[in-house]
Design brief:
There is one protein chain. This protein is α+β, with helices and mostly antiparallel strands and about 300 residues long. It has one domain: LCP protein (Aminopeptidase), CATH 3.40.630. It is about 40% helix and about 20% strand. The strands form 4 sheets. It has a 6-stranded mixed sheet, with helices on both faces. A two-stranded antiparallel ribbon has the order 4-5. Strands 7-8 form a two-stranded antiparallel sheet. The protein is globular, with a radius of gyration of 23 Å.
């Protein structure tokens, strides 16, 4: 008696194998993520300036973090290359970025009128926090000072293929490399040179614009599905290259929310806003930006509340 063979439905078999394969890869990824996260949250961050920093108590769920980029972390007399405040709303997952021009002529508590970035040189993160509060009425809850080497390495972990930027003209002076004009794919070291280039035809305004551009693009990369599994490696790296008073579990939670957020583009603002300042030159200080503080306080309020 002939045995009737059952017809194999190969399309269904292939689909089942594909589903199984995706499931296995997903499980491996999840286990790697959990393992790396566990390792990261049990390794404390450097807190060189935490004892002296007295950020406002966060009475709401929104957080303002003072972000500084510097070659030195907490060293006496150091000046910061970048002054930003990141605003995070955990309810909406909105991330907003405020860039403060370092040449603004401001009142520094205990030191009279100086450029904004002199506050960090005089008294570190705490005096800079007080200065921003005094002049712009903005409460700051935490700080993070990023080592430039850490920025380079973090970029290469997050975006190993680099970030595409359109370089308006050749950049070389003071950055230890030459970036050619035109569309370029920049990795960590080159991207750092791109944002730090000082001899911009738009003066420091161009540099601030490039900083916001790069951070916005990195944030867009961070919300991609593949980036969630890189978070533990990023945290592990940043323990070596960041000085912050944010505890690891909180930073992990914020990072997870940002990386899994599928919302719109990150909003940015530059302070002072256009039309709210004048260029001046003062003996012993040099070129400064004379700011209309009322206009800029109102601009910040509208930006953060969305009104």
């Amino acid at each position: 008696m002939a045995i009737k063979r059952r017809k194999v439905r190969w399309p269904r078999v292939l689909v089942a194998l594909m589903i199984l394969g995706v499931f296995m890869v997903g499980m491996i990824t999840i286990f790697q993520y959990i393992e790396g996260t566990y390792k990261a949250i049990n390794q404390p961050f450097k807190k060189a300036e935490a004892d002296s920093f007295h950020g406002e108590k966060n009475t709401t769920e929104e957080v303002n973090v003072l972000l500084l980029g510097s070659d030195s972390r907490g060293e006496q007399g150091a000046r910061t290359d970048t002054i930003m405040v990141a605003h995070y709303n955990p309810q909406s997952n909105d991330v907003k970025l405020i860039s403060f021009m370092r040449d603004m002529y401001v009142s520094i508590p205990g030191h009279g009128n100086q450029k904004l970035n002199a506050a960090y040189s005089f008294g570190g993160t705490e005096l800079l926090r007080q200065t921003i509060k005094t002049n712009f009425g903005l409460d700051i809850h935490n700080y993070a000072i990023v080592d430039f080497k850490g920025f380079e390495k973090a970029v290469d972990i997050l975006v190993p293929e680099g970030i595409e930027v359109d370089i308006p003209y050749e950049m070389s002076d003071g950055i230890g490399m030459t970036l050619e004009k035109g569309t370029q794919q920049l990795h960590g070291r080159e991207l750092l040179g791109y944002v730090r280039f000082r001899q911009d035809r738009l003066s420091d305004f161009g540099r601030v614009q490039r900083q916001q551009e790069v951070i916005s693009k990195l944030k867009d990369e961070a919300v991609s599905l593949n980036s969630v599994t890189k978070l533990p490696d990023l945290l592990d790296l940043l323990h070596t290259h960041i000085d912050t008073n944010i505890d690891s579990p909180t930073l992990l939670a914020i990072g997870k929310d940002v990386m899994t957020n599928q919302g719109g583009e990150m909003e940015t603002i530059r302070i002072p806003k256009d039309g709210s300042f004048e260029n001046e030159v003062y003996e012993g200080i040099g070129e400064v930006l004379e700011v209309d503080f009322d206009q800029n306080k109102e601009a910040l309020k509208e930006f953060l509340t969305g009104d």
